[in-house]
Design brief:
2 copies of one chain form a homodimer. Chain A is of the alpha/beta class. The first copy, chain A, folds into 2 domains: 205 residues, NAD(P)-binding Rossmann-like Domain (Rossmann fold), CATH 3.40.50.720; 101 residues, Orthogonal Bundle (6-phosphogluconate dehydrogenase C-terminal fold). Chain A is 53% helix and 10% strand. Chain A is built from 14 helices and 10 strands. In chain A, the strands form 3 sheets. In chain A, strands 3-2-1-4-5 form a 5-stranded parallel β-sheet, sandwiched between helices. The first copy, chain A, has a 3-stranded mixed β-sheet with strand order 6-7-8. In chain A, strand 4, helix 5 and strand 5 form a beta-alpha-beta unit. The first copy, chain A, is globular, with a radius of gyration of 21 Å. In chain A, 56% of the residues are buried. At the A-B interface, helix 8, helix 9, helix 10, helix 11 and helix 12 of A face helix 8, helix 9, helix 10, helix 11 and helix 12 of B.
Chain lengths: 324, 324
């Protein structure tokens, strides 16, 4: 563990090696390059790699060659492949560049962390999750500005390497995001609430509305349109997110089911919706009034920094300044 | 019952008497006047009536005088007071203008229809529901364009008076809306699905998200923001809508609960969300692809017109032309 005071500029801002050039990986390659970082990437398909090269970026379809280059340059490796391809990608990293710093941009952190452990790469791995994206996919829809002002969670798990953690944080800040430090399983529980549960409720509302036929769909206005918007996302993407976060999502879903069952009882027995509606309104106000604040008093690598960083993240703290 | 061919212009477009000058009633007074209709209104509070007069409209705080004027001019009376004030308003109408055509703009049609029956006014009443509005309220936030391209449901119940039905339809079209004919209880079941259930799900999502504290709220992005938007509406308005439509909302809520319980079982037992997500995506596509079509082949007042009109409404038909 080294204190960041001891980390030179080249150590905190090494080259960036992006594996997978879809929407997120492709945008990251562009954003890192735009920030002045040396950046190169790999994609399995010729089509995306060719498109990246045509757009002036450094991309290849030979994973071994790309990983050897990462090893030789000390690059930070960003795993940006879809979850089903993560395990095989980690196996190749373990083979060719086991000493490099590694991060990822997959939306569920627990299952990536477990796969990294199985590949024997935990000591140099710090997970990440930029909270951005669209329902579109592929190199062509990416853009350097995708991460601007987005929240980028940097996994802050027990025993994390301070130098790698700082490198991942620096990369997120270079891409224009603000960093929220959070333990992997806390992240997964939070996104179950605010990202995965919303999808299940939107699908449910869409089905219940459409079951009313053309009369109901013809009367549908803003509340239905907004409440079902994310049901328009590609089912494969929604399933991968939700099923990858199964345990945390089950807990959130059970909370929602209890609230709805209680509301059902209140409406049936008392003809009232007051308990649910008043609490829901207060909760939405809490969201509207939520304020980020800057974490400035935690030195990365100092005694207790991991727990202090996580505590700050829990209380709404974010990092905007790489010189912590 | 007269066939519309026998209805003169003054009979199909009588003066408009609006009782209640809040967001909907105040906008209706403006829109009717803008369409060239003679229009006058009543509001209980001096403040709104004064504001309406200052804006150049014909408004009064003396309900008896306004109803006597409605009686003398044969005006169509629009009940635009909040649901808790509907009963008392109907009692005054029965006292002073029992022969006038009457409609309303309250969001739940069954409970208004029942109150009208208790007041002995059913024979000259045809309910209405313009599917528009905002969370703001009062004369000052109204505007003539509130109804432009909105859907306006005209209640098409058994035994409805064809002449009054035509007058209500004409008023909605004059205000710039398209008309959907629907039986009151069918309307209430449809809006339970696409307007009231969305509110209960939004409240539930807001509570479950906020229970994750500042970390969860800080990570919340588009899916949470859109899925909880209507939880920002005033609780009193949400409660009035939902509780006024108790029976239909219980049915919709039970459908949603069954879908969510089944999804919970599927996720727990099979680690899958496929059934819910695939059906939800298809339902949202049905909504995106929903097309209105014009009802042109039903003559109001002809044999079987009520059932034919309701059938067309069920299949997505709308009325844009007053000369049916």
């Amino acid at each position: 563990m080294c204190h960041p005071d001891a980390v030179s500029a080249s150590e905190s801002s090494p080259p960036v090696c992006v594996l997978g050039l879809g929407l997120i990986g492709g945008s990251l390659l562009r954003a890192a390059a735009a920030a002045g970082r040396q950046a190169f990437g790999y994609n399995r398909s010729n089509e995306s790699a060719d498109a990246a090269r045509t757009d002036g970026y450094d991309a290849d379809t030979d994973l071994t060659a790309v990983l050897n280059r990462a090893r030789d340059t000390g690059a930070i490796i960003v795993v940006a492949v879809p979850m089903p391809a993560v395990e095989a990608t980690l196996t190749k990293i373990a083979e060719h560049a086991p000493g490099n710093p590694i991060t990822d941009v997959v939306s569920v952190k627990g299952e990536v962390r477990d796969a990294v452990a199985r590949a024997g790469l935990s000591s140099r791995f710090v997970g990440g999750h930029p909270m951005t994206g669209t329902s579109a996919s592929g190199w062509s829809v990416g853009e350097a500005s995708l991460f601007t002002d987005a929240v980028w969670v940097v996994a802050t798990d027990d025993g994390v390497d301070a130098a790698v953690w700082s490198q991942v944080t620096r990369l997120a800040l270079d891409c224009g995001s603000v960093v929220v430090p959070a333990e992997s399983s806390e992240h997964d529980r939070a996104v179950a609430r605010i990202s995965h549960l919303p999808h299940l409720l939107a699908e449910t509302l869409a089905i219940t509305g459409a079951a009313g036929g053309d009369l109901a769909l013809g009367l549908a206005a803003g509340s239905f349109r907004d409440g079902t918007r994310v049901a328009g996302s590609a089912p494969a993407l929604v399933r991968a997110m939700c099923e990858g976060n199964r345990d945390a999502l089950l807990d959130s879903l059970d909370e929602a089911l209890r609230l709805l069952q209680d509301a059902r009882t209140d409406l049936f027995e008392n003809s009232s919706t007051a308990t649910l509606v008043d609490a829901g309104h207060a909760a939405r106000r809490a969201y509207d009034n939520h304020q980020r604040w800057d974490i400035t008093d935690v030195s990365v690598g100092a005694d207790g920094w991991i727990e202090r960083m996580r505590d700050a993240g829990r209380r709404g703290g974010v990092i905007r300044n790489p010189e912590l």
